[in-house]
Amino acid sequence: MSELFRALVVNKDEHGYRAQIQDWSRDQLMDGDVLVRIAHSTVNYKDGLAVSGKGPIIRQFPMIPGIDLAGAVEESSSPDFAVGDKVLLNGYGVGEKHHGGFAQYARLKSEWLIPLPKTLDTEQAMAIGTAGYTAMLCVMALEHNGVTPDKGPVLVTGASGGVGGVAISLLSGLGYQVIASTGRMQESEYLQSLGATEIIDRAELGGPGKPLGKERWAAVVDSVGSQTLANALAHTSYGGAVAACGLAQGMDLPATVAPFILRGVTLAGIDSVMAPREKRILAWDRLAREMDLAKLTSISRLIGLDDLPEAAEAILAGTVRGRLVVDVNL
Q: In this predicted model, what pLDDT tens digit does every residue of 70-94 receive, in sequence order?
């Protein structure tokens, strides 16, 4: 019989929806050409929905959630990876329709994996995680659309969350002035330590606004959506760009075309789940070079598999500062 390992498993049946720590066999894992011994994972908003059952994230049951993972190759029939290679994964439906990172092992398709940058260890990679990788994709989109530090400040919404924290750190390190929008003004000192030069209350952007407002920023990294994104667009300067990557406030966009046709604002959609492998490698290479790794300590906290149900509720309630890294062997 195959060696047993620990995993957080979600089931949905006549007994209801539940997440439990179970002992699993490698034989229970899904198909793939690479077996990874996982060292670390992380908790994203989507993971919170999956573990708690408060969103239709998981497509089949039972399922091991966890959209991120980092570890070492234990078995491989792929020419791209050898036993012992350090690898990481973000997205591709893992943790939704293919067993994911909240376990000590995962069997995966090699095309989903990328090499772990040599300057990062697995804990650091998961302190960055999908949130940080998404933040870098946002920065790359702003740069692609001509945003440079001399154009003016960049607004980061949802600033106390995972995407927000990494975005602030990256942008400030690249020389941008950063305005942080948060619903937790008590976190102002923390946000300033990451590089924000101005903090605004999310209430300024969270309610109904005008189609066009005063030009306040050259660009935006938005993980909130809904009315916040509409107001962020309305206050973006002529020729500016907005990178939209989340929906913490909602999926709707109660906006007009005014920012687009009167100010030439670009709205760039950011998808981290199915982004091409080449773009993923570029983003992670830049993260390894440009992320201030010293700041990862202040934006991350280590938990174990047993802590995941509580962590899922906390991240959905918006009470988590920064990133939660999961040591699957704790």
A: 999 999 999 999 999 999 999 999 9
Dist CA 38 CA 31 (whole Å): 17
Cβ burial 215-249 (10 Å sphere, 16+ → b, else e): ebbbbbbbbbbbbbbbbbbbbbbeebbbbbbbbbb
The answer to whether the bond into 62 is cis (omega within 30° of 0) is: yes
What is the secondary structure of 50-96 as a DSSP string? HHHTSSS---SSSB---SEEEEEEEEE--TT--TT-EEEEE-TTBTT
Longest dimension (CA), the chain: 67
Q: Domains, the chain, ranges and CATH?
A: 4-116+296-327 (3.90.180.10), 130-269 (3.40.50.720)
Q: Structure pTM?
A: 0.94
Q: Which amino acid is it at 212? A: L
pLDDT value at 255 more than 60: yes
Going by the DSSP 8-state scheme, the letter that residue 296 receives in this structure is H
Pull the structure tokens for residue 69. 């993972």
Specify the 3-state DSSP secondary structure of 167.
Answer: helix
- Among residues 217, 174, 178, 169, the alpha carbon closest in space to that of 197 is found at 178
Question: From residue 187, how far is each of 159, 201, 224, 319 by CA, in Å?
Answer: 9, 11, 18, 11
- Interatomic CA distance for residues 7 and 150, integer angstroms: 48
- pLDDT by residue (tens digit) across 230-253? 999 999 999 999 999 999 999 999
Distance CA(99)–CA(97), nearest Å, equals 7
> How far apart are the C-alpha atoms of 188 and 310, rounded to whole Å?
25
